[in-house]
Each structure stands twice: as C-alpha cells, then as structure tokens.
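pipeline: protein-struct stage 2 | run 1193 | Imidazole glycerol phosphate synthase subunit HisH
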Amino acid sequence: MLTAIIDYESGNLHSADKAFQKMAREGGGGEVVVTSEADVVAKADRLVLPGDGAFPACAAALAASGVQEALVEAVEQRGVPFMGICVGMQLMARTGHEYEETRGLGWVDGEVMRITPSDPTLKVPHMGWNDLRIDIPHPVLEGVHSGDHAYFVHSYQIRMADPGQRIAKVDYGEDVTAIVGSDNCIGLQFHPEKSGPTGLRMIANFLAWRP
C-alpha cells in the first residue's frame, strides 16, 4: 500500500512525513512518500494534502503543481481515501473567502470564513491546544473521544452548510469546525502530527481505513 503526501510547496512536510512514516511502520501501513509527481499521486492507495498559509495561495499552488488533476481523478473517480490537513482541509470546501473569493475542491458543502469569537479576549489566530467535541462517529476517530486534545494554528474555518459533514468541532468563542468528512474524504483543521497520541491514533486509523 502506498500513501502519498502531496508536496505542492504550501506546507512544512517534514513533521507530517515523520508521523505518517512512524505509524506506517508500527501498523504495517505500507510505504509513505512525499511527492510532487502526478504519476505517483495517480497510483497511490491513500492521499494526504497538507497546507499552510492563505487559502488563495494554497489553491493557486495546487492548481499550478501539476498534480491536481490526478488528485481529483483519484478521489472522485476511484474513491481513494483522502485526508486534508489544516488548509488542505479547507481546500475541501466549495469556496474560500480569505482575502478574495476562491474556488475550492467542493468535496464538502461549506465555505471558508474567518473565525469570529464572541469573547473579545480570544485572539485570532486560534493557536494552541483545544478539546475536540465529536458530533458523528467515524472510523478515523476510533479510540478518540470528546475531550481529547488537538493542536490548532488557524484564523479561518469551514462554516458547514451540511451539518451532517461536520464530524467534530471545538469551542473558541463559537463552534469552530475541527473535522469534516464525506464519503472517502476526511479533513482535519488541526495538525495531527503535532497533536500527540490523539493525532497519531488518527493517522494510524487513516492508514487502515477502507471507506
């Protein structure tokens, strides 16, 4: 089994690669590669899309990378399991509204909007540890429970039009979408590779997931 972490020059891939490699070794999850090659993406059994920075820049970088067509075909036509991380999750939405309106991949029904905490003492970006509140069970969350901690660094979130696709949230002066899912796709707003045992458990579950 081959898991491809997509390198489109929009994320720090070292820690993600290290975490996926570790869980693949421990769980017999096959080979993990970081790649910017469309042919590798096309033959991968699982796909991971990280992302750091602004939504428009990440969307443009993905479109220019040469791998987007292979990614879309793999996920939409062949049902390859997909995980989006941070802005990689936000790109799953229909539209982003960071700086300018930007089209996303449209794999979940929502729009990326700035976080607006009701408490003025809560700073944006939302940065640090927060407690997950799980709304919907999911195989990638096996062994993970409400109250478990995950590590966030972001100023925008997906505001879901379809609440059935919001798997988990956190409280940051408002409900902030933490995990989304649809069919063979799951997205994590936080960084699982920086979220201790909780994040590593999700990575291991993803490597074993068969939607």
